[in-house]
Specification:
Shape: globular
Structural class: mainly alpha
Number of helices: 5
Order of helices and strands: HHHHH
Largest sheet: none
Radius of gyration: 12 Å
Length: 99
């Protein structure tokens, strides 16, 4: 699933996590961290795959989970464990990686 910026709708037109987008995400670190993500987010699952996700969409979604603006207890718990560098690394990795 490829999320293009043109199709995104942010609450009140506000993008969250913009400061994270200024961090150069480490692709190798993102690949390492992604191992936990793809346990659930994999092809053939009811949970969408994260590969080829737009970096901006991914960052915004993770910050919204952290803040409780997106409602999913599991994702909120996971997101709260991630720092800005980790979110940037995951976002960069998933944007560039193919399944």
């Amino acid at each position: 699933m490829n999320q293009s910026l043109a199709t995104l709708s942010f609450a009140n037109g506000e993008l969250l996590g913009g400061e994270i987008l200024n961090i150069a995400g480490d692709v190798d670190y993102g690949a390492y961290l992604a191992g936990e993500c793809v346990v659930c987010h994999r092809a053939g699952s009811e949970i969408p795959t994260l590969y080829n996700y737009d970096k901006t969409y991914f960052v915004d979604a993770m910050v919204r989970f952290q803040q409780g603006l997106r409602k999913n207890t599991t994702m909120r718990d996971i997101a709260l464990q991630l720092g800005d560098e980790e979110i940037a690394a995951l976002a960069t990795y998933f944007e560039r990686a193919a399944e």
